[in-house]
Amino acid sequence: MKRIGLLTSGGDAPGMNAAIRAVVRSGIYFGMEVYGIERGYAGLIEDKLIPMEMRSVSNIVQFGGTKLRTARCMEMLTEEGQKKAVATLEKHGIEGLVVIGGDGSFRGARVLSEQYGVPTIGIPGTIDNDLEYTDYTLGFDTAVNTCLDTINKLRDTMTSHERVSVVEVMGRHCGDIALYSGIASGAEIIVVPEVAVNMEEIVSSINRSRANGKHSNIIVIAEGVMSAEQFAKQLQSLTTYSVRPTCIGHVQRGGSPMMADRMLAAQFGNKAVRLLNDGIGNRAVGIKDNKIIDMDIIEAVSMKKVFNYELYETLKMISM
Ligand code: F6P
User: Fold this and answer.
1) Looking at domain 140-253, which CATH architecture does it have?
2) How far apart are CA 166 and CA 184, in angstroms?
3) pTM (2 decimals)?
4) Ligand 1 atom with minimal separation from the 224 CA
């Protein structure tokens, strides 16, 4: 393969820039020409391509966001949009494509591979950690660390005022950000889309912890359940302790990637290009049991995310 394309799509995630760098440098290492596509599939449809030289990716490994910018592209769901995307690839003689993004972006990649025969490799880039085939997605670790930083600060003020803090993190369908930031911050309760909310149990757990000498409580809630504000309102009507909501919001999508995400970025990016260099397409790269893996992209997008109930139970046993 002599010429490949690269795009970032969907919600950005810390580590995307490091992955761009790894793809560009690996491509150049194998003697390929690498074209960056701006604004995800929208840029592919609109022919927004830029040649990526070796130095074009200097000094980006440490930054959040994506140098190529990103978009959620509805047109890519239509046959017309898909045909335009393929026409751009053909016009520039691009023989293979690397797509860095989440679930929705992988579906676009699947269409390109399956229906139009474009060898495509998916790199899981999303803070949500909602892809079952990989243990971790790029950006998840940094997002959780950002949540931890906020929760640490909230704990200071909540303890001084003996309050209950309700912290909303991202995750519409997947509770992993709430689960991991809840366990790692020592939160007492997490509320996730995968488990039905039991307000009575939450109130009893707060009362128990106060009777045991606690001065504050942290509840981490995933946005998919309800907003922190709504939850705090409901809880306040059931308790005399003072409740305060905080929504971390898009802060958790930015910032300098942590070591874990930079390492994933380097390995995912390199693996994607090595696959294309071997003439292999239509794969999704990931990490399973600490090993970099690749699997059929169609199979990868078909897998349903399984919530880690064991970790959820662990939280209940150690936070009281
Ligand atoms: O998919 C990543 C994500 O950050 C989700 O966790 C969140 O629900 C969504 O994107 C927010 O999307 P937007 O940036 O379009 O508001």
Assistant:
1) 3-Layer(aba) Sandwich (3.40)
2) 16
3) 0.98
4) 8
